[in-house]
Design brief:
The protein has five helices and no strands. It is an all-alpha fold. The chain has one domain. Helix 1 runs antiparallel to helix 2 and helix 1 packs antiparallel against helix 5. The longest helix is centred in the N-terminal third of the chain and has 28 residues. It is globular. It starts with a helix and ends in a 14-residue tail after the last helix.
């Protein structure tokens, strides 16, 4: 398995994920919310981990199904871990585990929540929560687009000459 290729792709994904965190940061700056520092720290951690992975990885190589499955699993794990940071650092949830639950819930589009009253959250955190749901939904669509054509079609109908 080509681990260096997997590292490069996951690193690029983390850098892009950090860029998505910039949108709620802008909202937080515009509305002068207290979650500015939470988003700055979250972006810094996510960006740093992505840059480290890209620097250690390699772009060249052949990708097989094995690498594809590892990339998908790694992407959900890494983005879930990084996506929990804004929830936790701004105090929207009491523990990192609750933030991780919110992040995984959004990125897997289950819609479950540990937050009792989401209306009292800062606008930037509400936007981040919505963006995790949107990114999760887009991820499922991309997976279907990429992998559906590769699944062999079989029919139970008899073939007639």
């Amino acid at each position: 398995m080509n681990y260096l290729l997997v590292e490069d792709i996951l690193g690029r994904l983390m850098v892009a994920f950090a860029a998505f965190m910039g949108v709620p940061l802008l909202v937080s700056l515009i509305w002068q919310e207290g979650s500015v520092l939470a988003f700055i720290l979250s972006i810094a951690v996510t960006l740093f981990s992505g840059v480290i992975l890209v620097a250690h990885g390699q772009k060249d190589g052949r990708m097989s199904f094995r690498e594809g499955f590892v990339i998908v699993a790694g992407a959900w794990i890494l983005t879930s871990l990084a996506g929990a940071l804004p929830f936790t650092l701004c105090g929207a949830v009491p523990t990192y585990l609750d933030g991780l639950f919110e992040s995984v819930s959004g990125l897997t589009t289950t819609g479950a929540s540990v937050i009792d009253n989401v209306e009292i959250l800062p606008k930037s955190i509400l936007l981040w929560r919505s963006m995790t749901h949107w990114l999760g939904g887009m991820g499922i669509i991309v997976l279907f687009i990429v992998f559906l054509p590769l699944i062999p079609y079989t029919s139970n109908r008899p073939r007639y000459p």
